[in-house]
Specification:
The chain has two domains: 5-70, Aminotransferase class 4, branched-chain amino acid transferase, N-terminal domain (D-amino Acid Aminotransferase, Chain A, domain 1, 2-Layer Sandwich), CATH 3.30.470; 79-194, Alpha-Beta Barrel (D-amino Acid Aminotransferase, Chain A, domain 2), CATH 3.20.10. 15% of the residues lie in helices and 32% in strands. It is built from three helices and twelve strands; from the N terminus they run ββαβββαββββαβββ.
Length: 196
């Protein structure tokens, strides 16, 4: 079983974003490993003072390593629907081998949208939300409960529902959400052109 985990935290000009949500997820993972006394992640972070960076924390039960990487946003406009009922990524594991293998099947799309047990889940890098004309809806059963997703649910900016492939036609907009892009609307018209 994989025992190495990951947090990706956004920093802009030295300012760290939404650290409390990363801290909460880190503590949840550590608690699941039997560790009740957790480190304060803030003590490990000294991001560069200029530019936008991914603060990449790789951690185990006993160690935390941090590296900083300049962030360049990927342009995602088209998603390939891909079924995989076996994938498991309930914790943010450092080993992304299965996600990387699925990503290689994207063909001419920019990323994939994973369907597990006939329900829409996530892309390889983000949770997803759909606009129904009234509210933004995110899958009730994502692969990973992301920190941005948690914050937006808590603030009642998005809402959970099970979403099937056939339901996609009921939505008018698509957004991706993760720590680096926050809430990024990728398609606000012709939603069918988003999926292949």
């Amino acid at each position: 079983m994989n025992k190495t985990f990951l947090e990706t935290i956004k920093a802009v000009d030295g300012e760290i974003f939404h650290l409390s949500y990363h801290q909460k997820r880190y503590e949840s993972v550590m608690n699941s490993l039997g560790v009740l006394s957790c480190e304060n992640l803030h003590d490990y972070l000294t991001p560069p003072k200029d530019g936008t960076y991914r603060c990449r924390l790789i951690y185990t039960k006993d160690d935390i390593k941090v590296s900083y990487h300049p962030y360049y946003k990927r342009n995602i406009k088209k998603l390939k629907l891909l079924h995989d009922d076996e994938i498991e990524y309930s914790k943010k594991y450092a080993d992304r081998t299965k996600l990387d293998e699925l990503f290689l099947q994207r063909e001419d799309a920019d990323d994939i949208l994973i369907i597990k047990n006939n329900l829409i889940c996530d892309t390889t890098i983000a949770n997803i939300a759909f606009y129904d004309g009234n509210r933004w809806i995110t899958p009730k059963q994502p692969l990973l409960k992301g920190t941005t997703r948690a914050r937006l649910l808590e603030n009642e900016e998005i809402f959970e529902e099970d979403i099937k492939v056939k339901d996609l036609q009921n939505y008018t907009k698509v957004a991706l959400l993760n720590a680096m892009i926050d809430f990024d609307i990728i398609r606000a018209e012709n939603i069918k052109a988003t999926f292949c």
